[in-house]
Amino acid sequence: MALEYVAFTFFACVAVLQFVAARNDLRGLSFFRSRRAVYVFSGLVLSSSFAWFFLSEDRARPGLEGLQQFLLFGVAAVMAVAVTFLLSSLLNGRRLGSPHQNLTGLDALRETTFLRALRSALKEGDGDS
Amino acid sequence: MGIAEADQALLLWFNGLSGHFRPLDFLMRGFATDYLLPVSLALSLLGLWFMSPRERSQKAVICAGIALGLANFFVKMMNLVYFRPRPFSELELNLLFYRPHDSSFPSNAAAVGFAFAVGVCLFYPKASWVFFVLASLFALSRVYVGIHYPFDILGGAAIGALAACISWLILKTFDRYLSRVLELARRFYLA
Question: If interface means Cβ-Cβ distance under 8 Å, which residues of chain B face chain A?
Fold first, then answer.
């Protein structure tokens, strides 16, 4: 049950991350070039994960406790963020350039990938010291 | 009619709507599960973290997160001092769910849902409507399937709202430190 829950929430988190990447024009986080493709992918993955989890078994019975759910969701969300950041960095590495100077935080991912932004930030840090 | 009688009458009326239209029963049973709406609330919170305006949405997420912990704590404390039997153990009704054995009052489901909703609303009212819809569905479905009285969900919602207000006060008090933490997260492109 725990494994099923983690798998379900992992894919659902990936889908939500893709949706918000498309909505906020965070091109560095998207898996696809086209926004429409990202929305379609997000919708399909989200609905499939829900359908799989809730139709594979009757979930209206005792299962995971609240604390267990909280911890497992946390694990799945962290994994989903890590996978999304890494995969989008690999997929968009050639297409997107270095971050613009005045874009900070997640806004920088409008123009660059996570790994590239992190590398630039670390280089700047080395340059300062 | 006293409060207890009114509570029972309202439950029997609402639960009495079940058993007539199968698709509605199926839907409400789905909403009442321990997974569908809590996961939907958590996913909405995850999405909110990445939405603009960033600092406001991220503070809303942190507020809701702290409120969740506080709400659960308050419910556990109340359960230590007061036990209310579940409606199915006292009344003849159409039970569409498994039989939980913990105290009926207050509703943990309502406390959690409204901790999220009010927590988000205090920082970002425009974004909170989704959370209020999900929290209300979660709470009402638990009455429909016969495992809570209406007063249980009102009590739970009040506890959730209180937890959110305390969370908001904590964040306002430590706003300077919170901003520093978010600034650090921004340096690593996580906020």
Answer: 29-30, 32-36, 38-39, 42-43, 46-47, 50-52, 54, 68, 72, 96-98, 100, 108, 112, 185-191
What token pair was written down for B151? Answer: 């007063």
What average pLDDT does range A58-71 have in this prediction? 92
Cα–Cα distance list, B27 to A43, A98, B142, B153 (Å): 20, 48, 12, 19
Q: How far apart are CA B140 and CA A13, in angstroms?
A: 26
Closest-CA residue of A relative to B50 is A20
User: Taking each helix axis from N to C terminus, what angle separates A66-92 and B36-49, rounded to the nearest 10 degrees?
Assistant: 40
Average pLDDT over residues A3-22: 97
- Could you report the per-residue pLDDT of B53-85, keeping only the tens digit for each? 889 999 999 999 999 999 999 999 999 999 999
Phi-psi region of A61 (alpha: psi -120 to 50; beta: other; left: phi over 0): beta
Query: For residue B44, which of B116, B122, B108, B123 has the smallest C-alpha distance?
Result: B116
Number of helices followed by number of strands (H, E) in chain A: 4, 0
DSSP conformational letter for A93 = T
Q: CB B186 to CB A121 under 8 A?
A: no
**pTM, whole model, 2 decimals?**
0.94
**Cα–Cα distance, B19 to B96 (Å, whole number):** 9
User: What single-letter amino acid sits at A3?
Assistant: L
Rounded CA gap, A2 and B47, in Å?
Answer: 23
